[in-house]
Amino acid sequence: MPVWICATCGNHYAAAESPPAACVICTDERQWVPPSGQRWTTLDGLRAAGHRSLVRELEPDLIGIGADPPVAIGQRGLLVRTPEGNLLWDPPGFLDQAAIEAVRDAGGLAAVTASHPHFYGSIVEWSRAFDAVILLPEADAHWLTRPSPSVRTWSGTLPVLPGLTLIQCGGHFPGSACAHWAAGAGGGGALLTGDTIFVTPGEDRVTFVWSAPNRLPLPERAVRAVVEAVQPFPFDRIYGGWWEPVLRGDAKRVLESSARRYIEFLRGNAGGTGLPAGPGR
Ligand SMILES: [Zn+2]
Ligand SMILES: [Zn+2]
Q1: What pLDDT score does 280 carry?
Q2: Which domains does the chain have, with CATH numbers?
Q3: What is the pTM assigned to this prediction?
Q4: Which residues, given as ranges, of the chain have pLDDT below 50?
């Protein structure tokens, strides 16, 4: 029986003769269902369609794992290496033997986790390949669409490995998280953020969303909560959910100035009113 994969979000479902009627991730207001209807695939189907894993070192001890061509939302995972084991973050829905071999060559896998449920992807498949623990925020664990006995839940902050801490930020989902990697960016610290903090195309700003595809913003108190959650941690760089963009330097200052600007817009104090000029305006 195949493991069914939602073609739109890349999340895996329990092995079954036939796929579920709907994807619970995609019918939620933060995601979307194609106008032509729900589509399902499998790892074999994706391989047959020509998808292959793409593995690339991004900086020392940080390896990106994506798919070429990209699958579903198209996130690339991040493998962080530490002397006491490795963490995989935001794995895409697709994986193949080449990706597993690359992780084995990098020292294997102690734990696998994700920024939020849209990126749970192949998390269970990775856990099974390495007998790795799956770390999910208590608040979002019910979104995991393929049950696994390897799930451990957490909340607040969780030191996972030396110099590697999961931080619950909320916002996009109540359990939306960042991973803080102290050795990243040459020792200045890096944040792995997925959809919790979005890096913008110019690599000079960040933004926040409740739904990216449906263009729904976060309320002010949620934006403030994200900034406050990461405030105690030093970081110079932010890796979002895709190969690019990356906020390569001065990331803490950019996060704070971007949040201030975002809140000015929410309050209607920036960017003009957008109203046409005319009588009574
Ligand atoms: Zn889906
Ligand atoms: Zn998302």
Answers
A1: 57
A2: 5-38+53-266 (3.60.15.10)
A3: 0.96
A4: none
